[in-house]
C-alpha cells in the first residue's frame, strides 16, 4: 500500500511542478503587461497634463499663475518622483549598485517632499482646488504621502527592509494618484461620467485611496505568503 502511495506521489509531482511553473510564468506575464500598460498610460498623461506646465507663462498656467512657485514645485517634485520611483523597485540596481540605489532614493524622497509640501499649500487655497471636498482629499493625500515617505526612511535607517519596501510601495501608489485620477476622469465609464459636479470630488478621493489601499493589501498578502518577507 505504501509503495502504491509513493508511486502515485512520484507520478503526480512532476505534473504539479509543471502547473506551478506555468502559473508563475502566467503571473509574471500578467504583471509585466500590467506594468507596461501603466507605464504607457503614465507617460501619456504626463505628456498631456504635466509637460505643458514646464513652460512658465501666464498663458500656460491660467488661473494657477498667481501661485506659480507652489504649482511649479508640485509639478517638478511629483514628476521627479513619478519617474525615479520605478528605479527604486529595480532589484538588480539595488544589488549591483547599492550606492546608486540610495542616491535615487534620496532623489525620490526630495521629489515627494516638494510635491507634498506644495499639495499642502494648494489644499488651503480654494481658487486652486475649487471645492472643499477636493481640498480635504488633497490635504489627506499630502499627509499620507509625507507620512509613508518619512516612515520608509525611518524604517531603512533602522534596517527594517521589509517595512521599508512596503511603505515605499504604498508611497509610490500615492505618487501614481496623479495618473490614476486623470485616467478615471477620462475613462468611458457611464456611472463616472454621469456623476456631474460630484465627479471632481469623488475621483479626487478614489484616485489615491484606492491604489493606496490595494497596494497595502497586496504587500501584506505577499508578506504572509513569504513568511514575513516582502
Textual characterization of the structure:
The protein is an all-alpha fold. The chain has 2 domains: 1-48; 55-225, no CATH class. It has 11 helices and no strands. Helix 5 (98-123) packs antiparallel against helix 7 (132-157), helix 7 (132-157) runs parallel beside helix 11 (198-225) and helix 8 runs antiparallel to helix 11 (198-225). The two termini are 42 Å apart. The mean pLDDT is 85.
- Tally of contiguous helical segments: 11
Total count of domains: 2
- The amount of helix comes to over 70%
Care to count the β-strands? 0
For the terminal residues, how far apart are their CA atoms?
42 Å
Largest sheet report? none
Q: Spell the H/E element sequence.
A: HHHHHHHHHHH
Runs in which pLDDT lies below 50 for 5 or more consecutive residues are none
User: Given the helix and strand composition, which structural class is it?
Assistant: mainly alpha
CA radius of gyration: 22 Å
Task: Indicate the mean pLDDT.
Answer: 85
% residues in beta strands: under 5%
